[in-house]
Each structure stands twice: as C-alpha cells, then as structure tokens.
Amino acid sequence: MKIHLRLILLNYLIIIGCSEENKKTSDFYIYGELDTTDVVIGDVMSFQVWAKGAGDRKIEFPPLIIDDNNISISEGKILENEFKDDRGVEFQLTFWDTGDFQIPIYNIGILTEEGKELVYPIQLDPSQIKVHSLLTEAQPKLRDLKPPVPIPTIIPWRNILSILGILFSIIGLVWMWSKRIHDENKKIEIAIPNRPPFEIAMDKLETLSNENPSNAVALKKYYEDLSYLVREYVENQYFLRAIEMTTSEIEEAKFVIPVSNKKLDEVILILKRADLAKFAKFVPSISSCKEDLRVIHEFVLSTKLSWVANKNGVKPMEVV
Q1: Are residues 128 and 215 in the same domain?
Q2: Of 237, 274, 280, 320, which cross-links 197 as Cys (Cβ 3.0–4.6 Å)?
Q3: Which residues, listed in sequence order, are joined to residue 127 by a DSSP beta bridge?
C-alpha cells in the first residue's frame, strides 16, 4: 500500500513539473495594440508592439514603414514597464487625409544570443484605421454673416502725447537756437608781446652777465634763470610752448624751429646741464657758466627777427 502511495505522489510531482515547464515556455508572446481605430485628420495615434516574457531573448523591433504620403510616422520609442522581461516599441502616426488606411504586416525578429543573426521572425497582422473629417455633412453650409459690431471711439492718448512732446521739443530747440550768441565776423587778433622777444632776452642776458655765482645755491639759481630765459625766448619767438615742455620734448620738436641744427644742439646741451644743476645737485664750474651764457648770447643775436604790427594782425617776420 505504501509503495502504491509513493508511486502516486511521484507521478503527481512529475505532472506538476511538466505543467510548470510548459507554462514557462508558453508565457512568451508578441502582440500589437492601437489606442484607437477611428481618428480625425491631424490626430496623433499610438501604435505599440510588445514582446511579453522575452526574458534573455534578443528582440529586434525594425522601423515601421508605410508607403503613403498621407501618413506621418515618428521614430520608434523603446518602451518598458514594471516587468523586466517585457520589452516594446511605440510608433506615433498622423493621418492627413480621410478614408480607410491599413497598418501593414509588422515583422519582429528573434535574434541569437549574440544578437547578430536572425533565428526566426514573428509577424503581426495588419490593422485597419478609419480617418474622417470634422465636417460631417456632405455639403457643409456656411453660416450667415453677423452684422458689424459697433466699436467705441478710442482716443489715442499715447500718440497725441508723443506728438505734443515732439512739437514742444522742436519749439524749445528753435527758441534756444534763436537765443544763441552771434559772433561778429571779425579777424582774430594775434596777441603781440609789448616788447619783442629779442629785447626781453637781451635784457635778461645782461642781468645774468653781471652775476658772479660763488656757491652751489647761487649756481642752481643762475642756471634756473638761464634755462627759463631760453625757453621764454623760443616760445615767444617761434610760438612753441617751450616753457611747458621738457628738454627732451624740445629736442624732439626742434625740427619746427627754423634754426640750424648745430646751434640748437648747443642750446639743448645747455638746457640739459641746467636740468642737472636744478634736479641732480650738479655743480658746474664758473667758467662753464660764462661759456654757456656766451653761447646763449650768440644764439639770440643770430635769431633776431623784426616785428611789424598791423591793426588786425602781424606781418610776416623778417630776419634782421
């Protein structure tokens, strides 16, 4: 009796195991679904293809191709759900004409484990789609035109204020222009020194010739006066702002002074020596002072010009 019961239990377990194995192999299947089969022109319809229970199988979802210019198809979007063994793809279709359309047979490829070769294809049956227009009547009738609606009078205050602002601005500019100071048409008078630069320089040279500097302070003051005398003479004689310029700037601008380069080089050398005495505590000898004074005296004498003034200006200067 016990042996008989054991055989019955063993057969039962074998049957259950076989049924479970058949169940596992029958869980894998492919299907497609449409969210609707009745659409309006311009509506977007979803077409999904699912592989349920795919497990470790390599599934290939090719692009959906429909040879019809009245249908727009988006690229396939891979879908996933709560079950990791399920894989799918979604295509969005848009129809641009009325009538009956068909989604053709869609082939799904089952690949090898490496995913390089096709093992066998699975086909989905074609699906029928009906597309209609929003106008349900065969010959739609136009509605009667509504009578014109009266529009209340709108005053364009912004435009009016803008125009007034522009007008007042123009009036103000014209008024300010009329109040401007009218310059009289007259020649510009040239400022003429009360005395010619030559006379001023000669007087200062005579004063310096009477000085006998005997110490460093007196020598510094002597060269300060000599340097200012030269700069003042050049500025008044040749209209060059020599008083405000450094010695280096005067040397760079010497080409505008109508004097020979040799004379100018001697004068610029004296100006540099004066700069050393004023700023670098350089103490020149008494003989150098007298020699520098002599060079400046000859420079002034050789560049003397005659000045003839008119009522409204100055005549060209002439070398005496």
Answers
A1: no
A2: 237
A3: 103
Does some domain include residue 75?
yes
Angle between helices 216-238 and 261-279 (to 10 degrees): 140
Instruction: Give per-residue pLDDT as tens, 75-97.
Output: 888 888 777 888 888 999 999 88
Task: Please report whether residue 154 resides in a domain.
Answer: no
Assigned token pair, 95: 């129809």
Domain assignment of residue 262, given as a range: 197-319
Alpha-carbon 28 to chain mean position: 60
Q: Total structural domains in the chain? A: 2
Q: How far apart are CA 59 and CA 28, in angstroms?
A: 12
Q: Does residue 109 contact residue 17 with C-beta atoms inside 8 Å?
A: no
In this model, does residue 98 exceed pLDDT 80?
Answer: yes
Domain boundary among 132, 156, 183: 132
For residue 185, name the pLDDT band (cuts at 50, 70, 90): low
CATH number at residue 55: 2.60.40.10
Q: pLDDT tens digits, residue range 230-277? A: 999 998 888 888 889 999 998 898 888 888 888 888 999 999 988 888
Tell me the average pLDDT of the chain: 80
Tell me, what's the pLDDT at 191? Answer: 55
Cα(108)–Cα(121) distance, integer angstroms: 6
For residue 311, pLDDT beyond 50 = no
Tracing tokens 């005398």 back to the chain, one arrives at 229
Residue 71 contacts residue 18 (beta carbons within 8 Å): no
**In this structure, is residue 53 part of a structural domain?**
yes
Are residues 308 and 213 part of one domain?
Answer: yes
Indicate the residue among 132, 158, 184 that finishes a domain: 132
- Distance CA(313)–CA(297), nearest Å, equals 29
Average pLDDT over residues 35-41: 87
Rounded distance between C-alpha atoms, residue 16 and residue 313, angstroms: 132
With both helix axes pointing from N to C terminus, report the angle between 286-302 and 216-238 in degrees, rounded to the nearest 10.
10
Same structural domain for residues 106 and 203? Answer: no
